[in-house]
Amino acid sequence: MSAQPVEQPYDPYRLEAAQGPQTLAALRAALADVAPADLLRFDAKLAAVQLDQVEDVISEYRHVWALRSRPEVLAALADSLNGRTDLVAYPLTEDSAA
Fold first, then answer.
1. Is 39 helix (H, G, I), strand (E, B) or coil?
2. Can you give the pLDDT at residue 91?
């Protein structure tokens, strides 16, 4: 008998694989819309890395895009800068304890 996977609560700060831009062209366009300076850094970093590091750079800048574009993240950042922080406690699971 196998254990059922534990369903994680919605986390607006986590970017799932199917969310956000799914191609290089889409990521470049999305970054250009929300953070043109980040697009320049992305292109420079992408051009300078080894092929085995390309996936890491793409993942990093998909997260940058999410941080720059998600209203709930922007609101949390603004709240934090203004001294208003409400920490959300998620239940500890075996996966998160590792």
1. helix
2. 62
